[in-house]
Design goal:
The complex is a heterodimer of chains A (314) and B (255). Chain A has 314 residues and is α/β, with parallel strands linked by helices. Helix content of chain A is 26%, strand content 28%. Chain A folds into two domains: 4-174, Rossmann fold (3-Layer(aba) Sandwich), CATH 3.40.50.620; 192-312, 3-Layer(aba) Sandwich (Rossmann fold). In chain A, the strands form two sheets. Chain A has a nine-stranded mixed beta sheet. Chain A is elongated, with a radius of gyration of 22 Å. Chain B has a single domain, classed as Rossmann fold (3-Layer(aba) Sandwich). In chain B, 30% of the residues lie in helices and 28% in strands. Chain B is built from six helices and 13 strands. In chain B, helix 2 (67-77) links the parallel strand 4 (56-62) and strand 5 (81-86). Classes of the chains: A alpha/beta (314), B alpha/beta (255). Chains A and B meet through helix 3, helix 4, strand 5, strand 6 and strand 7 of A and helix 4, strand 7, strand 8, strand 9 and strand 12 of B.
């Protein structure tokens, strides 16, 4: 008892085990890293684990939600951990609630902080796009889905690093889900990761026609134009311009946002920018928590003034 | 083929959220509840499949304030049927309880394919798609950006970090969590909305389900502003000048 079982992906959960090491120490149990299929992350990623639990089966050559849920459920049943951790990647979203139901465990997501005491967990979750934080108490055992952007581990001590094998569950022989192919995203000739200056437009821009205001500013400044997810999902800008969890991860010299609220999924893709300047009319917008400079202002007024100044060479 | 698209609500993104006196929920008195933005994408994807294959689309919502409007919007956008799922209690539910309610409805409606949004902004205790799939014992995929369906299978394009994509095939029946539709949700005119309201009635479906045991929210609060941002003051012109100076100082201007 007291074990922490972490679902580790080939990429996307690199900081998970280092983050979980002190949690396992506090819980008085082992840190067990579940590595599914052949594509293991690097040895440095796995180093904090006490046990690296491997499972192989032909059905695990490529990720499918059904196969990975069956394996993670089997690992939970065999090891009966107090705490099961996934990161809020696509796999984490697929698996967390599914295995919680299969194993009869509680589930909490969007977790940014997790502490364990007296057989229960206290969590802080970023909800409503990061506008509010929900503190919750959960009896253990339970499954937690962590916000990737909130994992800032200290350098972790190495674990015992024992190898163990999990028997493939029988469900892997009768899957209804098959991997078909990897698909290349369309190349639209945009590479936001190479820009020194990004102008990023968010939901606050209001509608498709107003995007031209941000485009004019980007042109005047010699910047690339990026967007947060709602702008892309509404069809106002193409997917190639999306910044965030499912878009580009950028680190420009300056990231200038217009009407971006700062949802955790967006912050994940831009919080390592060297300088962040945020314009938002809502003084409580979460973007101001990561910004180096901010202004509570109407984005259209500022964008038009700045476009004009840049054009003047002022 | 029959497609069910499950609709839930979210606070209007433009509304400022306040915490209620109890300190554990948002104050719902002054906010408008609108169709969850990801469910909007799922609805569009369902209608696109209908247009491609002749499938029937049934929009399903849980009894609660604002859901009638969302169901009527679905009808105006192309849903063939609208179903309001009632029980002894009404929304808001945690996603696990919503899944139990929808699962009871899905067993009655027996669709081949269920689409819903990948998440709602309030899903602190999990997302609907994997809970529902686990309840029904159906395969599922979340974070999907395109769905086609025929011949007993759904072909879904699943998106991973950084925009990487893979195509999966799910044996039907299945549950799919939609992140974004193949083309953006279509605009519906007020005239079309009014017409849809006069055409078909919303069907009521009473089901029994139990609230799932959920962890307890002990507090809901605004994040403390870390305060490390230097705020630029003055009118728009002054703010713009300060930003331009910063861009020069940081070497971000190429000219």
């Amino acid at each position: 008892m007291g074990d922490v079982l972490a679902y580790v992906e080939p990429t996307g959960s690199d900081k998970l085990l280092a983050w979980a090491r002190p949690l396992a120490d506090a819980a008085g149990g082992d840190l067990i890293a579940l590595v599914i299929g052949g594509a293991a992350p690097g040895a440095d990623v796995l180093a904090p684990a006490d046990v690296v639990l491997e499972v192989s089966h032909p059905a695990l050559a490529q990720y499918t939600p059904e196969a990975h849920a069956a394996v993670l459920t089997a690992a939970i049943r065999e090891h009966t951990p107090d705490v099961v951790l996934v990161v809020n990647t696509t796999a984490g979203l697929d698996l967390g609630p599914a295995v919680a139901t299969a194993a009869g465990l509680a589930f909490v997501n969007y977790v940014t902080e997790l502490t364990i005491a007296g057989g229960q967990a206290e969590t802080v979750s970023a909800v409503y796009g990061g506008a509010l934080l929900a503190t919750a108490t959960t009896p253990l055992p339970a499954v937690f889905e962590l916000n990737a952007g909130a994992l800032h581990p200290e350098v972790a001590a190495a674990g015992r690093g024992e190898k163990a094998t999990l028997a493939p569950p029988a469900a892997l022989d009768s899957l209804r889900t098959t991997f078909v192919e990897n698909v290349e995203p369309p190349d639209e000739g945009v590479d936001l990761t190479k820009a020194d200056l990004l102008v990023c437009v968010g939901r606050g821009i209001g509608d498709a026609d107003s995007v031209s205001v941000a485009q004019d500013l980007a042109t005047a400044l010699g910047a690339e134009l990026g967007a947060s997810r709602p702008v892309v999902d509404s069809g106002w800008l193409p997917k190639s311009r999306q910044i965030g969890k499912s878009g580009a991860h950028v680190k420009p010299k300056v990231y200038l946002s217009l009407g971006v609220s700062g949802a955790p999924e967006h912050l994940e893709g831009m919080q390592e920018s060297q300088t962040i300047i945020a314009i938002n009319k809502d003084p409580t917008a979460a973007i101001f928590n990561v910004a180096h400079y901010g202004a509570v202002a109407d984005l259209f007024d500022v964008a038009e003034e700045l476009t004009s100044l840049a054009g003047d060479g002022a | 083929m029959n497609i069910a698209v499950l609709l839930r609500l979210m606070p209007n993104p433009g509304d400022e959220l306040e915490v209620d006196d109890g300190g554990t929920d948002i104050d719902r008195e002054y906010i408008e509840m609108v169709l969850n933005e990801y469910d909007d994408q799922a609805l569009e994807e369902a209608v696109l499949i209908k247009e491609a294959t002749g499938a029937t689309v049934t929009a399903v919502g849980l009894a609660g304030e604002g859901i009638d409007q969302a169901l009527r919007t679905a009808a105006a956008r192309g849903a063939d049927r609208t179903v309001l799922v009632g029980g002894d209690e009404i929304d808001p539910y945690d996603a696990r309880t919503a899944a139990a309610a929808f699962a009871a409805a899905i067993r009655e409606l027996a669709p081949d394919l269920v689409l819903t949004g990948v998440q709602t902004p309030s899903d602190v205790f999990g997302q609907l798609t994997p809970f529902l799939a686990a309840d029904l014992g159906w395969p599922h995929a979340d974070v999907v950006i395109g769905v086609t369906a025929d011949d007993g299978h759904a072909s879904v394009l699943q998106e991973y970090a950084g925009g990487r994509l893979a195509r999966l095939s799910l044996g039907l029946p299945a549950v799919v969590g939609v992140q974004s539709s193949t083309t953006p949700p279509r605009y519906v005119s007020m005239a079309r909305l009014r017409q849809a309201m006069s055409e078909g009635a919303i069907e009521n479906l009473d089901v029994s389900f139990e609230r799932a045991p959920a962890p307890v929210i002990t507090s809901l609060a605004r994040p403390e502003v870390s305060g490390h941002a230097t705020m630029l003051e003055g009118d728009a012109g002054k703010v713009a000048q300060q930003i331009l100076d910063l861009l020069r100082e940081k070497g971000a201007l190429t000219t």
